[in-house]
Design goal:
By secondary structure, the protein is an all-alpha fold. The protein contains seven helices and no strands. The chain has a domain of 123 residues.
Length: 196
Amino acid sequence: MAFKRSAKTASAKGSKTSRAALTIEAARLLCPNEMVAEKVAAAFALPLPDFQGIRETHESVLRQAWNAFDESLNERATMMHFQRITGALVSSALGAGRFYSQKVTEAKDATARLANEHRDEDRDAPVGFDSKADRTRQFAAEMALQAYALLAAAEGALTAYKEITGEDWKAYEAQAEGPATVERRSAAAELSAFQS
C-alpha cells in the first residue's frame, strides 16, 4: 500500500485552529465608549477613569522607553520591541472588552430571571442585602470602567508606536512553516530514535 503524503499534509493543515485577529478595532467594538462609561459611572456611583490622562501617560512612557534605548537598538529591533509592547496593551484591552461584554450579558440574564415571579431560586435578597442580580450588575459596571481604562492605555501605545516607527501598528503574524522545514524536523526526530 502506497503512503499518501498529500492526504496527511492536508489533514494537518485543516486541524490547525485559527485565532481571532488581534486588532484595536475589535477592542474598540467590545470596550465601552466614553458615553457608555460616563453613564455607567453615574448610575453605579463609580469613579470615571481619566481616558485622556491614561492615554497620554502610556504614550509618554513608551516614548521615554524609546529615548532610553538611545542607539542601542537598530530600526528593525525597535519596531519588533515596540510592536510586542503595543500588542500586549491591545490584547489586554481586547480581553477586558470580551470579559466586560460577557458580564453585561450575565447581568441582563440575572435581572430578567429576577423579574420571573415563578422561580424561587431567583427571588430577591432579604432586606438590607444585595441580590445576586444587584451584585452581577455592579460587577459588570466595574468591568466596564476597567475595559474603558485599558482601551485608553492601548490607544496611547498606538499613538507612540506610530511616532516611534512611522507606521501604523498591526499584530505580529508568524509565518507558516514550509513543508521542507517540517519534514526536516520529522526526519531529525526519527533519526534521534536510533541514538542511545
